[in-house]
Design goal:
Strand content: under 5%
Distance between the termini: 46 Å
Helix content: over 70%
Order of helices and strands: HH
Largest sheet: none
Length: about 70
């Protein structure tokens, strides 16, 4: 009985640690998506300044589509 209680406590601790690190990984992934989108926005602004708006729009869509597929969001 005592062994079972210790096993349950260890399982709860390991699950909570796993959840903590998983949330950190998800935060890092969304941070990366944010920075990539930011960079794409700067590229789009640069292309807009070059008066090629459509190309920048297509480029941003492609990058966001690829990022979403890599992270499994879509």
């Amino acid at each position: 009985m005592f062994k079972l209680i210790i096993t349950i406590i260890l399982a709860i601790i390991s699950v909570s640690i796993l959840a903590y690190y998983t949330s950190n990984v998800l935060k890092a992934i969304f941070n990366a998506i944010y920075w990539i989108a930011n960079a794409v926005g700067k590229i789009v602004v640069f292309i807009y300044n070059k008066k090629i708006i459509i190309l920048g729009f297509i480029l941003s869509l492609v990058v966001l589509y690829v990022v979403a597929h890599l992270t499994g969001e879509w």
